[in-house]
Design brief:
Elements: H1 12-19, E1 28-35, E2 42-49, E3 62-65, E4 78-88, E5 97-104, H2 116-125, E6 132-142, H3 175-188, E7 192-197, E8 203-212, H4 215-233, E9 237-239, E10 256-259, H5 261-264, H6 269-280, H7 283-289, H8 296-301, E11 316-318, E12 325-327, H9 329-334, E13 339-341, H10 350-361
Parallel strand pairs: 1-5, 11-12
Antiparallel strand pairs: 1-2, 3-4, 4-5, 6-8, 6-9, 6-10, 7-8, 10-13, 12-13
Helix pairs in contact: 2-10, 3-4
The chain binds adenosine-5'-diphosphate and manganese (II) ion (4 copies).
GO biological process, one term: glutamine biosynthetic process
Pfam family, one: Gln-synt_C
Keywords: ATP-binding, Cytoplasm, Ligase, Nucleotide-binding
């Protein structure tokens, strides 16, 4: 019989003994989490504090070896971590915290993959329009050998059809990871709003939002961190690649739903149409911002097939899942609500996506 354990796997029952040890009342473990030099992967490390922080502003600025994360040269390697958002730690429990940080070089300028700083500046300019985001994070579960979870070792599962929102051991693979992640997010204080099994087997989605302003990017990055950590516990790997399996298999996106106060009010559809018009004039610029490789990743995904639009053309439509922008049926009927930008890839940076959407729609900055 094939073992599901790899050499690196430890015994979680033994581990539980140590996690139950009572901790000193006056100590707290704070895990600093940040986006590394790839702009896709996350890193983390922990320090002990002798108080329980309530707000990121109470936390010390820290640093790390940026030459080991693609964020600095070895000869000048210290990169600064600035705490920006604080969460309850669903792994260590108690008073322990996870803290999301953005990163700054030795001269206090943002690192190349710190896209939060400019995002926040732009969002502040549009604060009065009350921008809300809701992002749908699609991802694929892989086994420790990078093979899609539950797929036959040789060959492929049956064609797509029965898997989306499916139930049953022959339809969905890895539900434990999804369920554990959902609860970990709620515990942490992330505004997670749902999950579903996706069209390709072993592919899943969770949604975060609606979130106002920068909270969208903060919560989504921390939700990604929790997903990688939870999957690690199950000896499973998470891939955010937008087209993990070439051919007749759906890719993975990060549909970005967006609204302003005006769009949510009576006859907001007029404002939604104006937003679509602005978006139509900036298609190429948005495609550049919608994956970490300036559009290269989305070339594999946005083929105009398998519920995607073509990367080359802008399109919009009511209830249309083959367009760049979809106006949900309910929004068209109520004549108010939000729009869905279906173009961002699953590995896009939510700060970059938030920033360009607000520039184009709210600030007419193009
Ligand atoms: P679908 O799969 O049909 O595209 P989902 O239910 O997966 O839709 O996701 C809808 C997303 O839209 C959720 O993340 C939700 O938070 C977000 N959302 C709902 N209302 C608004 C709104 N007014 N403004 C922005 N986002 C919204
Ligand atoms: Mn050291
Ligand atoms: Mn969805
Ligand atoms: Mn989906
Ligand atoms: Mn969607």
């Amino acid at each position: 019989m094939e073992s599901s354990l790899s050499a690196g796997t430890t015994n979680k029952t033994v581990m539980d003994r140590y996690m139950k040890l009572p901790m000193p009342d006056d100590k707290c473990q704070v895990m600093y989490v940040w986006v590394d030099g790839t702009g896709e992967n996350l890193r983390s490390k922990t320090r002990t504090l002798d108080f329980v922080p309530k707000d990121p502003s109470e936390l010390p600025i820290w640093n790390f070896d940026g030459s080991s994360t693609g964020q600095a040269k070895g000869t000048n390697s210290d990169v600064y971590l600035h705490p920006v958002a604080i969460y309850r730690d669903p792994f260590r429990l108690g008073n322990n915290k996870l803290v999301l940080c953005d990163t700054y070089k030795y001269d206090n300028t943002p690192t190349n993959t710190n896209h939060r700083m400019t995002c926040l500046e732009v969002l502040k300019k549009a604060e009065d329009q009350e921008p809300w985001f809701g992002m749908e994070q699609e991802y694929t579960l892989l086994d420790i050998n990078s093979h899609p979870l539950g797929w036959p070792k040789n060959g492929f599962p049956g064609p797509q059809g029965p898997y989306y929102c499916g139930v049953g051991a022959n339809k969905v693979f890895g539900r434990d990871v999804v369920e554990a992640h959902y609860r970990a997010c709620l515990y942490a204080g992330i505004n997670i709003s749902g999950e579903n099994a996706e069209v390709m087997p072993a592919q899943w989605e969770f949604q975060v939002g609606p979130c106002e302003g920068i909270t969208m990017g903060d919560d989504l990055w921390m939700a990604r961190y929790l997903l990688h950590r939870v999957a690690e516990d199950f000896n499973v790997v998470v891939s955010l690649d937008p087209k993990p399996i070439p051919g007749e298999w759906n890719g993975a996106g990060m549909h970005s739903n967006f609204s302003t106060k005006k769009m949510r009010e009576t006859n907001g559809i007029l404002e939604i149409n104006r937003a679509v018009d602005n978006l139509s004039k900036n298609h190429a610029k948005h495609i550049q911002a919608y994956d970490p490789r300036g559009g290269k990743d989305n070339e594999r995904r946005l083929t105009g097939r398998l519920e995607t639009s073509s990367i080359h053309d802008f399109s919009a439509g009511v209830a249309n899942r083959s367009s760049s922008i979809r106006i949900p049926r309910g929004v068209a009927e109520e004549k108010k609500g939000y729009l869905e930008d279906r173009r961002p890839s699953s590995n896009a940076d939510p700060y970059v996506v938030s920033e360009i959407i607000v520039r184009t729609i709210c600030l007419d900055d193009f």
